[in-house]
C-alpha cells in the first residue's frame, strides 16, 4: 500500500468531497494509530477501553460500552482478549451477578503512559502543518460533522 493517496476525487464521490476527505483522513489516521498500538500488543479500540479505566477503574462493562462508543461485540471481544493478556479482570458485581465489573491489573495500569505518549505523538504528527487556530477550527468542525452524522435520523433545519 502506498503512503500517498491521490488527491483526485473519484467521479462517484464528486458530490461528496467532504465525506471523501473524512474517509481518507480517518483511514490514514487509523492505520498509523493501529501500527503504534501493535507495538504495545494492542488492537485498535482496546486503548479506548483502557483509557476509560485509567480515568475510573472498576467501570461496568455496560459503562465501558457507552463511554467508548464501540459496539457490544467489539467491547466483549476486546475485554476478553485483554483479560487473556493479563491487562484487566472481569468479575460479577456484588449487587447484581449479571453485571460485570472491569478492573485494571498492574500490567494494564502500566500501559497508561505509553498510551498517553502514543496519543501525544499522533497529535504532533497530525497537527504539524497546522496553526493552533486551524487545529481549533478543525476540531470544532469535526465535532459538528460527527454530531450531524450521529443525528442523521433527525430532520434537517428548514431553509
Mean pLDDT value: 90
Largest sheet entry? 3 strands, antiparallel
Alpha-carbon Rg, integer: 19 Å
- Shape descriptor reads globular
Number of DSSP strands?
3
* SS content category: mainly alpha
Task: Strand order, main sheet: write it out.
Answer: 1-3-2
> What fraction of the residues are assigned to beta strands by DSSP?
5-15%
* Poorly predicted segments: none
Structure explained in plain terms:
The chain is mainly alpha-helical and 159 residues long. The chain is 58% helix and 11% strand. It is built from seven helices and three strands, in the order ααβααββααα. The chain has helices at 17-38, 46-55, 61-68, 72-84, 106-109, 112-127, 132-150; strands spanning 59-60, 88-93, 96-104. The chain has a three-stranded antiparallel β-sheet. A hairpin with a 2-residue loop joins β2 (88-93) and β3 (96-104). α1 packs antiparallel against α6 (112-127). The longest helix has 22 residues, at 17-38. The protein is globular and about 55 Å long.
Question: Could you give the topology of this structure?
Answer:
Layout: H1 17-38, H2 46-55, E1 59-60, H3 61-68, H4 72-84, E2 88-93, E3 96-104, H5 106-109, H6 112-127, H7 132-150
Antiparallel strand pairs: 1-3, 2-3
Q: Top keywords for this entry?
A:
159 residues, 7 helices, 3 strands, 11% strand
Q: Quick summary of this structure?
A:
The chain is built from 7 helices and 3 strands. The protein is mostly helical and 159 residues long. The radius of gyration is 19 Å and the shape is globular.
Amino acid at each position: 500500500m502506498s503512503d500517498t493517496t491521490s488527491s483526485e476525487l473519484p467521479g462517484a464521490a464528486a458530490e461528496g468531497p467532504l465525506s471523501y476527505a473524512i474517509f481518507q483522513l480517518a483511514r490514514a489516521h487509523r492505520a498509523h494509530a493501529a501500527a503504534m498500538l501493535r507495538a504495545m500488543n494492542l488492537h485498535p479500540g482496546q486503548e479506548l477501553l483502557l483509557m476509560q479505566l485509567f480515568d475510573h477503574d472498576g467501570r461496568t462493562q455496560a459503562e465501558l460500552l457507552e463511554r467508548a462508543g464501540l459496539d457490544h461485540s467489539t467491547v466483549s471481544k476486546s475485554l476478553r482478549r485483554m483479560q487473556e493478556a493479563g491487562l484487566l479482570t472481569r468479575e460479577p458485581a456484588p449487587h447484581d451477578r449479571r453485571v460485570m465489573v472491569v478492573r485494571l491489573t498492574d500490567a494494564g495500569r502500566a500501559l497508561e503512559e505509553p498510551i498517553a505518549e502514543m496519543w501525544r505523538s499522533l497529535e504532533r504528527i497530525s497537527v504539524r502543518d497546522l496553526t493552533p487556530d486551524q487545529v481549533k477550527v478543525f476540531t470544532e468542525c469535526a465535532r459538528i460533522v460527527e454530531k450531524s452524522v450521529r443525528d442523521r435520523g433527525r430532520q434537517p433545519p428548514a431553509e
